[in-house]
Amino acid sequence: MTAVPGSIPEVDLEAWRRASDADRTPIAATLDAALRGTGMFLLSGHGVPQDVIDDFRATAKRFFAFPREVKAQYAIEAAYESGWLEMHPPGGVGVPVSEGDQAPSAPDLHESFYVGPGHHTGDERRDRFNYPANRWPVELPELRAAADAYTTHMVRVVQAVNEVLAVTLGLPDDFFTSRARMATWTQNASWYPSYASIGEVARGQFRNGPHTDLGTVTLLSRQRGVGGLQAWNEEDGWFSPPYRPDSLIVNLGDLMELWTDGRWRALKHRVLPPSPAAPDEELLSLVFFFETDPETLIEPLTATTGGGRGLPAAPARRTVLEKLGVSPDSVPVG
Less Cβ around it within 10 Å: N or C end of the chain? Predict the structure, then answer.
């Protein structure tokens, strides 16, 4: 493990696999400290081929270059759907605003395309809320192949991360993975247009306003930019996390903060607005939001392992959907 600025450690997944229990102990201690304070770390040795990353990013960018009337055929109309999401205000579909943050009235400056797992249970209503059908653009058939290739790796990597997190907590290494056999997840390609194409940015407007993610673990492949990612913790306030082109960022979401009873924090983060200092800068992030099996009851860990906040247990998928504004009466239970 290496330390990088902002107290954000980097975990080499391949080295972790080879390490003895004794060698893992200091790694786990450093990782635990970072997740208590910030909720983020870098991940190298993940084995995702660069050409798979590059192909998905380039193909997604081709989709965003389509005219609006083409993209609108795949527009998301409900919080749990897959498809295209136009620039939207913080607090809207898929963009929760953290408690204590004042949402600007202007929309966040990005577009997104969402895909999810292809699981089916045979229960039409449950599948609609948990595993909505993907909406692949017929104008760009290559997008499905590129997304499938990338998300296959994301599912593999996130389960390896889940094992690392379980060991770090002193739990059986399958504690999280055994509860994620048919997990809900969303793969998001987010395109951040340039300053030159958008023009003057409103005060308080961001490419992505301050928020925490809703699930357990998020895997992020990002691009370096002037108007890029910032993270927050109590010690440093807002800061730009280190960028390593061969590493993924791992950050924790609300469900993991709940599961650890506040021992670990969901990462508060934002993406800065496009800057006139880099007027032609476009960025495209690949964001894999992972949850758990939808019917899992998230029971906060006891005080010897958890953070001792006494948070209430909550059903995983229902909690996520309620935060997205979906009526509790419409969400299947159990």
Answer: C
Position 217: which residue type? V
User: Residue 305 gets which letter from DSSP?
Assistant: T
Q: What is the pLDDT along the chain (334 residues), one digit of tens a residue?
A: 554 445 799 999 999 999 999 999 999 999 999 999 999 999 999 999 999 999 999 999 999 999 999 999 999 999 899 999 998 644 433 333 343 344 445 678 999 999 999 999 999 999 999 999 999 999 999 999 999 999 999 999 999 999 999 999 999 999 999 999 999 999 999 999 999 998 888 888 899 999 999 999 999 999 999 999 999 999 999 999 999 999 999 999 999 999 999 999 999 999 999 999 999 999 999 999 999 999 999 999 998 999 999 999 999 999 999 999 998 778 777 6
Give the DSSP per-residue string, 176-222.
Answer: TGGG-TT--EEEEEEEE--HHHH-SPPTT--SEEEE--SSSEEEEE-
What angle do helix axes 50-64 and 142-168 make, rounded to 10 degrees? 130
Euclidean distance between CA atoms 38 and 268, whole angstroms: 8
DSSP letters spanning 23-88: HHHHHHHHHHHHHHHTSEEEEE-----HHHHHHHHHHHHHHHTS-HHHHGGGB--STT--EEE-S-
Q: What does DSSP assign to residue 133?
A: P
Domains of the chain: 2-326 (2.60.120.330)
CA dist list (Å): 226 to 42, 287, 310: 20, 19, 40
Task: Take residue 4 and report the two structure tokens written for it.
Answer: 């990088």
- From CA 55, how far away is CA 162, in angstroms rounded? 26
Residues pairing with 221 in the sheet: 286
Q: Name 93's Cβ contacts closer than 8 Å, sequence gap at least 6.
A: 76, 78, 79, 85, 324, 325
